[in-house]
Design brief:
single chain, alpha/beta, 6-stranded parallel sheet, 9 helices, globular
Length: about 240
Amino acid sequence: MGYKCRFILSDIEGTTSSISFVNDELFPYFRKNIDQVTLFAHLPQVKNAFNEIIAISQQEDGTILTTSEDVKQKLLQWSLADKKYTPLKMLQGLIWEKGYKLGELKGHMYDDVAPSFEKWKLNGIDLGIYSSGSVAAQELIFKYASCGDMTKWISHYFDTRIGGKRESRSYEQIVNVLGINPGEIVFLSDIEEELSAANQAGLRTIHLLRNDNDKSSSSYFARDFLEVDKLLHQI
């Protein structure tokens, strides 16, 4: 029996990669090297990010940032609070890129992910990633994955610039970009609110429960990508 979808859209944290990798390795690495953001100050996208940070800070709590040091302190606060602000995510990606290229970081990947990606791609299913981390950060975790470069199997990356992951409109936007019937797209995530938003946009969904103690109210759930593969023939 063949697969009943044309495109698989996957989350990262808790789905392809452990949440602890992000919390225990990536975030601390950014905080440790946060002073290096000023090394990229000449880049247009960094200048734009700084302007966005200043605007968000004033809108969020009335704080007016006037120096690069002020901006770095705000970034540190947001990182500790795990804020999903796009300029923070972009700057994190720049710092992580340096770490990956130096070999100081390796993207964690569950053992079942790479074989599944390869199998699905060989069977004509296109693959995409949707994460709150920037597209640049997403590409890095798969390019420098512990199991080797996985980017050859991934055709699309989406981040919060397309919208929040708990908003159905974001998935409608993704459908428009892909040009595929939403019923032929399967979204994989460990967060039920994200799955619910995707369902509202017409996507099919599978809840990833990497922790054996986790429970699900979703119609379809799996403990790993091997179980996902079996469900793809059914949903």
